[in-house]
Amino acid sequence: MFELPQPADGTSDDAKNDLPVIPVEEDSKTLDTFLRFCYPSTLAKEPSLESPTDILVVLRAARKYSLDLIESKVSQALVNPKLLEAEPFRCFAIARSALLKHETMTAARYTLREPLIPITKSAAMP
Predict the structure, then answer these.
(1) Backbone φ and ψ of 43, nearest 5°
(2) N or C: at which end does the chain have fewer Cβ atoms within 10 angstroms?
(3) For the whole prediction, is pTM greater than 0.85?
(4) Distances (CA, A) of 126 to 78, 115, 116, 117, 118
(5) What local confidence, expressed as pLDDT, does residue 95 receive?
(6) Which residues have CB under 8 Å from 108's CB, separation 6+?
């Protein structure tokens, strides 16, 4: 990323305060969370990943930029019991699509706790 060819002075439309701006696909929330993982942990605690969607987008960014340590930390968030109890199927789907064996097996176990046929209120009451 730091070795990208730089435009000649005055030819770039992508500049702010005379500094080049490199467009990225990730949104600001994803980048903020992702970069907080890069920040030294002695100075700040790691960001919390509380939803499967947050985990998915940060996991994609970690893979895109080849940061294995961040990918490992984000993968661990998928096996958080609180998250698995709330959304086991989403956690399973993310872990499976990311080819995370341990996380997939753990999420699969949590999906077994869910009923195969959801019980509706009308079916539960005679």
Answers:
(1) -100, -25
(2) C
(3) no
(4) 39, 20, 21, 18, 16
(5) 96
(6) 92
pLDDT in tens, the chain (126 residues): 556 565 565 555 677 787 878 888 888 888 888 888 887 665 667 788 889 999 999 999 999 999 898 899 899 999 999 999 999 999 999 999 999 999 999 999 999 998 878 777 765 555
Distance between CA atoms of 11 and 61, rounded to whole angstroms?
Answer: 29
Short-list 56, 32, 53, 55, CA closest to 44: 32
Please give the Cα distance from 51 to 55 (Å, whole number): 6
Q: Which helix (H) or strand (E) covers residue 73, if one does?
A: helix 68-77
User: Structure tokens of 97?
Assistant: 């699509």
- Secondary structure (DSSP) of 11-70: --SSEETTEE----SS-HHHHHHHHHHHS-TTTSPPPP--SHHHHHHHHHHHHHTT-HHH
Interatomic CA distance for residues 15 and 48, integer angstroms: 32
